[in-house]
Specification:
By secondary structure, the protein is mainly alpha-helical. It has a domain at 535-663: Histidine kinase-like ATPase, C-terminal domain (Heat Shock Protein 90, 2-Layer Sandwich). 77% of the residues lie in helices and 5% in strands. It has a five-stranded mixed sheet with strand order 1-2-3-5-4, with helices on one face. α5 packs antiparallel against α6 (134-150), α14 (279-295) packs antiparallel against α15 and α18 packs antiparallel against α19 (375-506). The radius of gyration is 51 Å and the shape is rod-shaped.
C-alpha cells in the first residue's frame, strides 16, 4: 500500500507539471497576442508618419503622436513629435512647436530619456526664434547643446552650435559667431556630415567677411565648395554652388579684385535656367554683379541690374530683399543725379526696411533722405538716423553681452551640476556597493538553497529508481518461481497423473480415469498460465502476435495497433512480461465473460511511461456495483506491483476499456 501511495504522489507531481506547462502555454499565447497588437499599432503609426503630406499633414502627424503615446513605443513617440515640430517650424506655428515640446518633456519625465529633453529645448529655441526673442532662443540652443554633449551626440551638438552661430551673425556678434562656428566644426568635421559642414563653413566665412578678413573667409567658402559635390540631393547641391559663387565673389570685391569677382558672378549666372529654377540665387548674383558695376562707375548697367532684381523680388514677394534693392537703387540714382527717383526709392526702402526689421537698410535710407531733403524733413530724417544708430549700437553691445552672459551662466551651471553629479555618483556608488553586497549575500543563500534542493532531488530520484529496480527484481524472482512451479506441474505432477491414469485404465476403472484426465488437463492449463516465453529469445512483438493467433477465432477478432510506436528493445523484460500477462488475462476474461466480437490492443509511449489500452465491444458491466473478480484483482496487483496505474472503464452494453500505464524508469 505504501508503494501505491508513493506512486499516487508521483502521479500528482506529474499532473502539477502538466498544469505548469499549460500555464506557460497560456502566457506564450498572451504574449503572442500582445505582439500582434504591438505590430498592428506600429504599422498604423508608420503609415501616418509616411503619409503626412499636403492638407492632411498635421492631422496625420497628430494621429501618429496619439497612437505612439497610447502604445508607449518610445522610438515612435520621439519620431512623431519631432516630425510634428519640424513641420510646425516650417509653417511658423508656435503653438505646434509648444505642443511637441511639452510632449517630449512629459516623455523625459516618464522615461528619463535625455535625448527627449534636449529636443524639447531645441523646439523651445525655435519657438523663441520665430517670436524674435533671440536671447531666449540662444539660451535654449545652449541648453540643448550641453545635453547632447553629455550624450556624446556629436551631430546634434554641431547642429545646435550652427544655429547659435547663425543667431550671433544676425545680431552682428561676428567674433562670437566665429568662436561658436569653430567649436561646431570640431564636432562635425570628423563625422563628414556634409550638409551641416557646408552650412558651418559658409556661416564662418560670413562672420570673417564682416570682420574684414576676406582671405580667411574665402578659404572656408572654398572648403564648402569642395564638399558640396557630396550632397546627393541635386537641387541642394546646385543651390550650394550658386551661393558659393556669390560668397567667394564677394571676398574678391572686398579686396577690390573686381575682374575675379565679375568672372565668378557671371559663371553663376550662366547656370542653366537659373532665373526660373533658382530665382533667389539669380537675384543675389545679379545684384552682386550690379554692385561691382556701381563701384566701377558703370551706373547705368548697375541700375539696369538692380531694377531686374527688384522686379524678381516683387514677383516672389521677398519683402526683405525688396528693401535692399530700393536702397541700392536710391544710392545709384543719387550717383546718377536723378534725385527724384532716388528720393522715391529711399522712401519705399525705408518703409519696407521698417516692416522687415532690416535696420541696416533703414539706416541707409534715412541717410539718403537726410541728403535728398531739406529743412525740417532733413532734420527729422537725420535725428531718426542718429537715434536708430545709437540704439542699434547699444543693442549690438547688449546682445553680445547677453550671448556671452548666457554662455557664462550656462557653463557655470554646468560646472556646478558636474560637481553635484560627481557627488551624487559617489554616494550612489556607495549605496550600489552596499546593495550589491546584500544581493550577493541573498544570491549565495539562494544558490545554496537551490544546490540543497537539487541534491535532495537527485537523491530522491536515485532512491525512486533503486526502489523501482528492486520491484523489477522482485518481479523477476517471482517470475522464476512461477516458471519453477509451472515446470514442476508440467513435468512432475502432470507426469504422475498420467501414470495413475494408465493404471486406472488397465484395471477398467474408466470413470475414475476420465475424472483424472480432466484434472490432468487443468494442471496443464495452470502450468501454461504460470509460464511465459523468454523475451530474450522471442521478441515482445512476436510474442503478442503468437498470443493473438492462438486466441483468434472467426467470431472473436483481435486487432493490434501501433505496437511499433514503442522501442521495445530498451524496455525492461519485467515490464514486457507484465504487459504480456495483462494482455493474456484480459483476452481470456473477455472471451469468458464479455461476449465480445472484437478486442483492440493499442500501444503508445511517452518520455516516462508505456501505455496499453485494451478495448472490447462486449456487454460491459457496472464497475461500481459489481465486485471485481479474482482475475481483475490479480491483473491490477500485477500492474501496481511495478509502480503502474491500472484503470478500467465500462458501461452496460457499451463495452469495456482498460488502460495500463507503466513507468519505464521509476
Amino acid at each position: 500500500m505504501s508503494n501505491i501511495r508513493l506512486f499516487k504522489k508521483l502521479r500528482n507531481l506529474f499532473f502539477t507539471q502538466k498544469l505548469i506547462v499549460f500555464f506557460i502555454f497560456l502566457v506564450s499565447l498572451t504574449i503572442s497576442s500582445q505582439k500582434k497588437e504591438f505590430d498592428k499599432n506600429t504599422d498604423s503609426i508608420v503609415f501616418y508618419l509616411k503619409n503626412a503630406k499636403g492638407s492632411k499633414k498635421f492631422q496625420y502627424l497628430k494621429r501618429a503622436i496619439a497612437l505612439s503615446e497610447a502604445s508607449e513605443i518610445d522610438s515612435l513617440v520621439l519620431e512623431s513629435n519631432i516630425s510634428y515640430a519640424k513641420e510646425s517650424y516650417f509653417a511658423k506655428d508656435t503653438l505646434g512647436l509648444t505642443f511637441s515640446k511639452n510632449n517630449l518633456q512629459k516623455h523625459f519625465k516618464r522615461c528619463k530619456d535625455s535625448f527627449s529633453l534636449a529636443k524639447a529645448y531645441h523646439f523651445a529655441a525655435l519657438n523663441h526664434k520665430i517670436k524674435n526673442n533671440l536671447d531666449s532662443s540662444f539660451y535654449y540652443y545652449q541648453e540643448s547643446k550641453n545635453i547632447f554633449i553629455g550624450l556624446k551626440d556629436s551631430l546634434e551638438t554641431g547642429r545646435r552650435l550652427l544655429s547659435m552661430a547663425i543667431l550671433q551673425i544676425k545680431e552682428l556678434d561676428h567674433l562670437g559667431c566665429e568662436t561658436t562656428a569653430v567649436e561646431g566644426l570640431k564636432y562635425i568635421e570628423p563625422l563628414k556630415k556634409y550638409r551641416t559642414l557646408i552650412s558651418l563653413y559658409q556661416t564662418l566665412g560670413n562672420a570673417l567677411g564682416h570682420l574684414n578678413r576676406p582671405k580667411e573667409s574665402r578659404a572656408y567658402y572654398i572648403k564648402a565648395r569642395e564638399i558640396a559635390k557630396f550632397n546627393t540631393v541635386t537641387s541642394r547641391r546646385e543651390v550650394n554652388y550658386l551661393n558659393l559663387y556669390n560668397n567667394i565673389g564677394a571676398t574678391y570685391v572686398d579686396e577690390a579684385k573686381f575682374d575675379k569677382a565679375i568672372a565668378l558672378f557671371k559663371e553663376g549666372l550662366r547656370f542653366d535656367s537659373i532665373a526660373t529654377k533658382y530665382p533667389r540665387q539669380y537675384q543675389n548674383l545679379l545684384g552682386s554683379l550690379s554692385s561691382v558695376y556701381f563701384r566701377q562707375g558703370k551706373i547705368e548697367k548697375a541700375i539696369s541690374g538692380y531694377k531686374t532684381v527688384l522686379e524678381g523680388r516683387k514677383n516672389s514677394k521677398y519683402v526683405y530683399g525688396e528693401s535692399v534693392s530700393h536702397s541700392l537703387l536710391a544710392e545709384a540714382y543719387i550717383k546718377n543725379k536723378q534725385y527724384n527717383l532716388a528720393k522715391k526709392h529711399a522712401h519705399i526702402g525705408l518703409e519696407l526696411g521698417k516692416k522687415t526689421r532690416n535696420n541696416e537698410q533703414v539706416l541707409e535710407c534715412l541717410q539718403f533722405l537726410a541728403e535728398l531733403t531739406s529743412g525740417e524733413a532733413a532734420k527729422k530724417h537725420f535725428k531718426e538716423y542718429i537715434k536708430l544708430s545709437d540704439s542699434l549700437f547699444a543693442r549690438e553691445r547688449t546682445r553680445k553681452n547677453q550671448f556671452a552672459k548666457v554662455r557664462y551662466e550656462t557653463e557655470k551651471k554646468d560646472i556646478e551640476n558636474k560637481h553635484l553629479k560627481e557627488e551624487n555618483t559617489r554616494k550612489n556608488l556607495e549605496l550600489e556597493t552596499e546593495k550589491q553586497h546584500k544581493i550577493i549575500g541573498w544570491l549565495l543563500a539562494g544558490v545554496s538553497v537551490l544546490f540543497i534542493c537539487f541534491g535532495i532531488n537527485i537523491v530522491s530520484n536515485r532512491k525512486k529508481k533503486m526502489l523501482f529496480n528492486a520491484k523489477l527484481k522482485q518481479v523477476e524472482v517471482r517470475e522464476k518461481e512461477r516458471q519453477q512451479i509451472a515446470k514442476s506441474l508440467h513435468d512432475e505432477v502432470a507426469g504422475d497423473i498420467r501414470m495413475l491414469h494408465l493404471k486406472l485404465a488397465k484395471t477398467n476403472q474408466l470413470e475414475e480415469a476420465k475424472s483424472l484426465d480432466i484434472i490432468n488437463e487443468n494442471v496443464r492449463n495452470l502450468s501454461h498460465q504460470l509460464s511465459s516465453e523468454s523475451f530474450d529469445k522471442v521478441s515482445f512483438k512476436n510474442q503478442i502476435i503468437n498470443l493473438v493467433s492462438d486466441c483468434f477465432e472467426i467470431d472473436f477478432k483481435i486487432k493490434v495497433k501501433e505496437i511499433d510506436s514503442v522501442l521495445w528493445k530498451s524496455v525492461n523484460n519485467s515490464i514486457k512480461r507484465t504487459l504480456f500477462l495483462s494482455i493474456r488475462e484480459s483476452i481470456q476474461n473477455t472471451k469468458k465473460h464479455a461476449e465480445a466480437k472484437e478486442v483492440i490492443l493499442k500501444f503508445s509511449e511517452t518520455k516516462k511511461v508505456i501505455i496499453l489500452t485494451i478495448l472490447d465491444n462486449g456487454k460491459g458491466f457496472n464497475v461500481n456495483a459489481k465486485k471485481n473478480g479474482i482475475g481483475l484483482k490479480n491483473l491490477k496487483e500485477r500492474v501496481e506491483e511495478i509502480g503502474g496505474v491500472f484503470t478500467i472503464e465500462s458501461e452496460l452494453e457499451k463495452g469495456t476499456k482498460t488502460i495500463i500505464e507503466i513507468p519505464k524508469n521509476g
